[in-house]
Prior knowledge:
277 residues; alpha/beta; two-stranded antiparallel sheet; 12 strands; 39% helix; binds fe (iii) ion; binds zinc ion
Amino acid sequence: MFVIGCHLSASKGYLHMGEEAKSIGANTFQFFTRNPRGFSAKPFDAADAQAFVQFAAENGIPVILAHAPYTLNACSADEKIRQMAHEIMADDLARLAHFPSAYYNFHPGSHVQQGVAVGTAYIVELLNAILQPGQTTTVLLETMAGKGSEIGRSFEELRTIIDGTAHSERLGVCLDTCHVYDAGYDIVGHLDDVLAEFDRVIGLDRLKAVHLNDKTPFPSHKDRHEKIGAGSLGLDAIGAIINHPALRDLPFYLETPNELDGYAREIALLKSMRTDR
Ligand code: FE
Ligand code: FE
Ligand code: ZN
């Protein structure tokens, strides 16, 4: 089954996002757990969550993807900001426990002047404090473009985080096509080789979701998403990605610069490009 959706606004609640996804031909979606550039969150609405769970079961939405706020930085040099990351992540995971099948994606963090080793150690410290056996939600490290001092620009950096994490059975990876291409992995010319490298370094069993974005231009570490087919990946590469045997059964999420009608068109286009349609 092709599991495809896009990023939606959470401002009107979970059920509304489910209905919106359905209306644009999606069977999954991503949303921010709270203000992406701050930390504030609406109070959790358990009735709305329950209504969504029922809607998802009736309408074939197999999984959803929550995205942590951009301002969360697990490896800040400032202890208060690291503590905030801990509180936010714990609260987000408590909310997500109301859903039978959810992933929680976060940007590993920016080490600023501290270096990758120190930054990585802080991220591991947070995950070891947060991840519990029996937790329903799998936490995903997003592959990053390497803007500034972002950790997660290489598969090796993600491997180091996973290796340090005790309950790594609750930890996976979300591959962002814009970011990995930006970071220098040539998924246009050598998709098989990049995925073989992912398998060798991290293991494809860790790969749980794909952020499907085009980008401009390669490689820049600038992290600029582009509409499907309008960027430097292009339609052929995107067709190869959504049909690749190692990826095709994963959920795909568009984070392209679009309103709802644009997302509906991209989802229809991608469906027409699937070899199992
Ligand atoms: Fe992201
Ligand atoms: Fe992304
Ligand atoms: Zn991005």
